[in-house]
Design goal:
The protein is an all-beta fold. It folds into two domains: 7-162, Sandwich (Jelly Rolls); 172-208, no CATH class. Helices cover 2% and strands 49% of the residues. Strand 3 and strand 4 form a beta hairpin. It is globular.
Length: 219
């Protein structure tokens, strides 16, 4: 459900594709257009990839400040062979890029909703060498493949959703070990005594406390 502070980059019912453009690698093709159907207009992204390292991009120019906590939601459908689906956040300089990468992505014929969480966002390239994006100059939806691939994606919604802060880092509540000597029980790893902890020299598996379940996401 939309929240105050949500940023809508595309939604059903948009009358035009203003602000969107398409580019592709040499010998490949990309095109953006408006598709009409019973559910309302969708952003149509046609692509044909050719050759090793081929890619095609649908780019939306923008100028915005990201919420402190957010997720990107994408509603799409389409018909295409498996490709790597990428969603990129580009800073205002155009030099620093962060991305989500979904390898071997095959779109469904029926609309599917993808939720891309900030925690799975990775720095791709640029002089910034890391960190988190604070402002955007563009957002890009891309497909990439080392094999020839052609298809169509219908984007019904693209939104940056403001979210509540996370629950924080998980804390160890239990420890297991395949074997241990008397006086070196696994549970003692959690004791506050640093000297006691340093005596445990066996491999351990840390089992975090259960956290509230989250809906399925990609990235």
């Amino acid at each position: 459900m939309p929240q105050q502070g949500d940023i809508v980059l595309w939604r059903r019912g948009a009358a035009e594709v203003e602000g969107w453009s398409a580019t592709a690698a040499p010998n490949s093709h990309a095109q953006i257009s408006l598709a009409q159907d019973a559910g309302g207009p969708a952003l149509r992204f046609d692509f044909a990839l050719s050759g090793h390292g081929a890619w095609a991009i649908a780019r939306r120019e923008t100028s915005l400040v990201l919420p402190p906590h957010y997720a990107v939601t994408l509603r799409l459908r389409g018909e295409a062979p498996p490709t790597e689906l990428q969603l990129k956040l580009v800073d205002p300089s155009g030099a620093n890029v962060w991305w989500w990468r979904l390898r071997d992505f095959t779109p469904a014929l029926e609309t599917q909703r993808l939720v891309l969480h900030r925690a799975s966002l990775r720095f791709a390239w640029g002089p910034g060498s890391g960190g988190d994006p604070g402002a955007l100059g563009a957002i890009e939806l891309a497909v990439a493949s080392d094999r020839d691939a052609a298809g169509t994606l219908f984007i019904e919604e693209l939104r940056i959703e403001a979210r509540e802060p996370g629950l924080g880092a998980a804390h160890a509540a239990a420890v297991r070990a395949s074997s241990f000597a008397p006086g070196f029980e696994p549970a003692r790893v959690l004791e506050p005594d640093e000297q006691t902890r340093s005596k445990t020299r066996f491999p351990v598996t840390v089992v975090p406390r259960k956290r509230p379940s989250l809906r399925r996401h990609c990235g």
